Amino acid sequence: MSKTKWTTTKIKACKGREKIVSLTAYDYSTARIMDEVGIHIVLVGDSLGMTVLGYDDTLPVTLEDMLHHTAAVVRGVKQAMVVGDMPFLSYQVSIDQAIDNAGRFLKEARADVVKIEGGAFRSKTITALVENGIPVMGHIGLTPQSVRAMGGYKVQGKTDDSISRLKDDAQALEDAGVFSLVLEGMPVGVAQAITKMLEIPTIGIGAGPHCDGQVLVVQDMLGIFSNLKPKFIKQYAALGEEMSNAFRAFKKEVHEGVFPGTEHGY
Ligand code: KIV
User: Fold this and answer.
1) Is 256 among the residues known to form the active site?
2) Considering 131, 174, 184, 253, which one is annotated as catalytic?
3) What is this structure's pTM?
4) Which value, to the nearest 10 degrees, does the dihedral of the CA atoms of residues 133, 95, 148, 170 take?
5) Domain map of the chain by residue range?
6) pLDDT at res. 63
């Protein structure tokens, strides 16, 4: 396992050699545990809008929300790459605004790179960010910030038109300078074809096993967040249940005068 910082160069070099492992995190303690076990990329996703802040989707998440949580994650990490996810309307309005806001992730929150959603139409913005020293992770397929435009969380790449658009988007983003690309919510074969076609690594979520890496939302894989349960999620723990049991046990012991015991007193 590498003991040095995961940089864009090292992530790119994983392609064809080592699967890239990524999880979302939104706080110091979780990020620290992920870093200690050698997770390569910790993504401070705008999914925090749902998993941490309780919104129905990611649209209300603000730049300040993201900077606050990204800075906390950065403080917990020594080796993992920290990706700051740019929230809805923080990079779409103008290229100048995108540079300003992406710059805040690096200057203030101390993230390593930023992630933005969108296809070929995002190329100019991506090139401007990269030329100004801000590495960018792309994100295509089911892009949650476009939930209204897509008419819900819908798997993309189900028609010939949609497949060729996804491939064109992937190529355009690589040409624009992204160092890696999230493929979300698309058929296994489409993600496989895109992964094969690109020189940069792809990181899949709901995109099958052939991507160069995988990412999951931490609350989903730990079994804490049960509002949405898409098919692609694998639950590696049932922490929601564990937490309920612990909270119940605490409540009972306080009611019964069992906690605190003499050993907990000064
Ligand atoms: O916001 C997020 O957590 C994400 C991942 C699902 C890729 O964008």
Assistant:
1) no
2) 184
3) 0.97
4) -50
5) 8-235, 239-266
6) 98
